[in-house]
Design a protein that fits this description.
Elements: E1 7-9, H1 15-29, H2 33-36, H3 40-57, H4 60-71, E2 80-81, H5 85-92, E3 94-95, E4 98-102, E5 108-113, H6 118-121, E6 130-133, E7 136-137, H7 138-143, H8 156-167, E8 169-170, E9 175-180, E10 185-189, H9 210-216, E11 229-234, E12 238-243, H10 260-273, E13 278-282, H11 291-298, E14 306-313, E15 319-324, E16 334-338, H12 346-355, E17 360-364, E18 377-381, E19 385-389, E20 392-395, E21 416-417, H13 422-429, H14 434-446
Parallel strand pairs: 1-18, 12-13, 13-16, 16-17, 17-21
Antiparallel strand pairs: 2-19, 3-8, 4-5, 6-7, 6-9, 9-10, 11-12, 14-15, 14-20, 18-19
Length: about 450
């Protein structure tokens, strides 16, 4: 980046002093205050009394939750606050033995049941349609779900997915009454399911977050990736590439990071040598990384020099232009990029670049995250809490903010959107990769297979 990432340290202050400093710093340095119409004074007025109350009671739990709720008001996937696992477990450690999904027609259905859980024992079945949750119409109940333990949501689409996932989470021992459209009612008690339900929702049921969790130090039992870019040939002479992020990492612990761009170059050469008829670039759950790398990867597909972005920092009128510069060896066949709401930051830049190609498509149930600012600014808070936020903007050729969400809408939408039907929702919960299958079907159809 052309601008030094800001860092502040308020960890030595009282909670109230640090919160006041945090709010003041974000009001000055957060990149999208005007774009997203963030009212910093109103947020301070709302949450400072909660921080003061936590301070007076010396309650770290209350302080941590108030800080999470404050940060969660900012609709930006780059705005993050580190959490406390024990506090999370207290509030969302229980499950009811089921997951739900909202279909495109608005219905909310049961998609998965723990074979040893209370929902299965009570007679619920996969496919059952829910009418009410604790006496409230199900659609209203979903809208009221708190997502402070799931991170910020840049778009309404992302928020809805998180609310559906956390509707079925509660403190251990919580009783919940579920009424189905056929008038059956059951009362379930939250038990310790080791957060199993969170692994049965989209995208967790089908798309691993292993690399992101490895970088963040989170527990994840999924297999480790061999490299940041992995390739395999699929039936029908179609090359599949999983691109986990836009960074170089030493995943095999050789002492030297492997060039992700070189891995992509090798994949392109392999596709051309084998005369691949099509390519699937899987950037679902792409953790983002370096903008320059995103532009370099797109250079493997672009026949002409093309603007990737203008970078803008602070109040300066100075803009830094970043271009896609065509490489000698390119793939020019049909390419479909698989996307979802956990494809964030520079991963979204790759998605946009593929979508803009005449031979490119984006495919998925949902669009990308809608968080495309220059990230990496940090603020240390008391209690070993870290707040991250973006401090720069990405502008398009017309010098307008691009991809960053606004009023609940942003990111890259699928040019081929898969419907969330009951059948697809249930297949997802079983771990079936509906998106990959559809991309394969389309590419094979193009070949007449």
């Amino acid at each position: 980046q052309k601008s030094k990432q800001p860092e502040e340290d308020f960890s030595g202050l009282t909670w109230t002093q640090a919160f006041t400093k945090l709010n003041e710093t974000l009001s000055r340095q957060y990149a999208f205050t005007e774009w997203k119409d963030i009212r910093w004074q109103a947020l301070k007025d709302k949450y400072l009394p909660q921080i003061e109350s936590a301070q007076s009671k010396d309650s770290f739990e209350d302080y941590s939750i108030a800080l999470r709720a404050y940060i969660n008001e900012i609709p930006d996937g780059h705005v993050k606050v580190s959490g406390d696992a024990e506090i999370e477990d207290k509030y969302i450690g229980g499950g009811f033995g089921l997951t739900v999904a909202q279909l495109d027609d608005g219905k909310v259905i049961v998609t998965w049941l723990d074979p040893f859980g209370p929902a299965q024992a009570a007679g619920l079945q996969v496919g059952d349609e829910i009418a009410e949750w604790n006496g409230h119409p199900i659609v209203n109940a979903v809208k009221e779900v708190s997502t402070i333990f799931s991170g910020t949501s840049a778009t309404d689409e992302t928020l809805k997915q998180k609310q559906l996932a956390y509707l079925v989470r509660a403190p251990l021992g919580t009783e919940t009454k579920i009424t189905l459209t056929d008038s059956r009612s059951v009362t379930l008690t939250a038990y310790n399911d080791k957060k199993m339900s969170l692994k049965k929702n989209y995208p967790s049921a089908v798309v691993s977050d292993k690399l992101r969790d490895m970088v963040l130090g989170n527990e994840n039992s999924d297999p480790e990736p061999e490299g940041v870019a992995e390739k395999k040939m699929l039936d029908g002479n179609i090359l599949y590439i999983k691109l986990w992020a836009l960074i170089d990492l030493d995943l095999k612990q050789t002492g030297k990071p492997i060039s992700t761009l070189d891995l992509m170059r090798e994949a392109i050469s392999y596709a051309n040598e084998n005369q691949c008829a099509g390519m699937i670039l899987d950037i679902r759950n792409n953790a983002g990384g370096i903008d320059e790398m995103a532009a370099e990867i797109l250079s493997l597909f672009y026949p002409e020099k093309t603007l990737y972005e203008y970078q803008k920092f602070g109040d300066s009128d100075d803009l830094t232009a970043l271009y896609i510069k065509p490489e000698a060896h390119q793939f020019s066949g049909k390419i479909i990029a698989l996307i979802n709401s956990r494809c964030i930051s520079s991963g979204e830049g790759v998605a946009l670049g593929i979508k803009n190609l005449s031979n490119g498509e984006t495919l998925g149930f949902y669009g990308t995250n809608g968080s495309f600012g220059m990230a990496g600014a940090k603020i240390k808070m008391p209690g070993s809490i870290m707040v991250d936020y973006p401090y720069g903007q990405s502008l398009d050729k017309d010098r307008k903010i691009q991809l960053e969400s606004r009023n609940g809408v942003g990111g890259v939408s699928p040019s081929i959107r898969i419907p969330m039907t009951a059948e697809n929702a249930i297949r997802i919960a079983k771990g079936e990769d509906v998106e990959l299958e559809e991309a394969l079907r389309i590419l094979r159809s193009d070949q007449g297979l």
